[in-house]
Design a protein that fits this description.
alpha/beta, 2 domains, 6-stranded mixed sheet, 9 helices, 16 strands, elongated
Length: 382
């Protein structure tokens, strides 16, 4: 396996210092294409949805198409790691999920493909908008994705809280189904000295927030976990004399099983409508983000286990899906594939923490893992 680790670390640090949030990853994609064209030129670049693109490396003879995915986007989280020499140059934006590392890993895989495989082809997908839940679907639905149509698709995610460099995987749901929804309530404004002349949404919002815990309890533990979390609310103005006419509150619903999530959402929406009607409020819902669960197929799971053994990397089988959402399921529901984790260390800051930084020590074992996985996938029967 031939890689230039120093060069890759430099790439990762540049990406970390120049983060872009979902749907704005143009410069990130441009930099990645430039790096590949200079240091690991592909046979073809296929432009996909948004800033997304695929780098194609053709083998000497026809065979399987193996797709590996990395994410382009960062998060709207302000970086607090002031001692980093590659600190984010954009206030309020940071690579706090490790996508800078994931992109760099695929760049390292590209370096190993200087000598093309004997047969088949490897496609490196640099996908936008993962954090918004729309990127994988947008790339898959793009007309030019038909030129890829993988036989196998794989992705990884760094995982704080697991031993560093350890592969983590399971069959079935790897990452959870998630629904992020806004509930908007409209009433009637009034002077706060005469609240009876208006319809203030505050008590309905408070009641719904408390009811969320009861609804969660009704579904949690029934063949899987269930979670409802209030994450944002807004109402009124900072004026003592104004009773507000409207307000909104946002919730994130999660479960490892899509059917549990859907049933919980139906119960929650019915409850919200009942509460709104009781206060004489109009109500509307808007789904802002949605992730279906990410399924791992049995065949792809076994390929990951075998690749870890061949790469000399410890493998841990987990029983429960991760609670976070991941849009890679938009690919594994249509193609044979799976997602796995790479442990980032037991005491490493968690994902989406303002102090999080990708662990550069994961680059080499992750590239080695993908290289073994690609080699095995190219030999599989499609």
């Amino acid at each position: 396996m031939k890689i230039n680790l120093e060069q890759l670390v430099g790439l990762r640090h540049w990406l970390h210092a120049h983060p872009e949030v979902s749907r704005q990853e143009r410069e990130t994609a441009k930099h990645m294409r430039g790096f590949l064209e200079k240091h690991a030129p592909p046979d073809e670049i296929i432009l996909l949805d948004g800033a997304g693109f695929a780098a194609v490396f053709n083998g000497a003879a026809p065979g399987n198409t193996v797709l590996l995915r990395a994410e382009l986007d960062a998060l709207p989280i302000h970086e607090v790691n002031r001692d980093l020499p590659y600190l984010s140059v954009h206030d309020g934006v940071g690579h706090k999920c490790g996508h800078d590392g994931h992109m760099t890993i695929l760049a390292g895989v590209a370096q190993t493909l200087a000598d093309r495989p004997a047969k088949g082809r490897v496609v490196l997908l640099f996908q936008p908008d993962e954090e918004a839940g729309t990127g994988a679907r947008g790339c898959r639905d793009h007309p030019d994705f038909k030129r890829i149509t993988p036989d196998f698709a794989f992705a990884l995610h760094n995982l704080p809280g697991f031993p560093k460099g350890e592969v983590v995987c399971k069959v079935g749901t790897f990452a959870s189904a998630v629904k992020y929804v806004a509930v908007r309530l409209a009433g009637k404004g009034s002077h706060s000295a005469q609240p009876e002349t208006g319809i203030n949404p505050a008590f309905a919002m408070a009641e719904l927030t408390l009811k969320a815990r009861e609804i969660q309890a009704d579904f949690d533990g029934k063949n899987g976990y269930a979670l409802i979390v209030p994450i944002f609310s807004q109402m009124g103005v900072q004026s003592s004399g104004v009773s507000p006419p409207s307000g909104e509150v946002h919730f994130t619903l999660r479960s490892g099983k899509g059917e549990i999530l859907e049933a919980m959402w139906c119960g929650f929406a019915d409850c919200a409508e009942t509460i709104a009607a009781g206060y004489g409020l109009a109500i509307e819902f808007e789904t802002l983000e949605e992730f279906d669960e990410t399924p791992n197929g049995q065949i792809a799971f076994e390929m990951i286990r075998q690749a870890a053994a061949a790469a000399g990397i410890e493998f841990t089988l987990i029983e429960e899906p991760f609670r976070w959402g991941e849009d890679f399921g938009e690919l594994t529901r249509h193609y044979k594939g799976a997602m796995f984790g790479m442990g980032a260390g037991m005491n490493h800051p968690p994902l989406h923490d303002p102090e999080f930084d990708f662990v550069d020590d994961l680059l080499e074992p992750s590239i080695r893992m993908f290289t073994q996985l690609v080699s095995g996938a190219l030999l599989q029967k499609p």
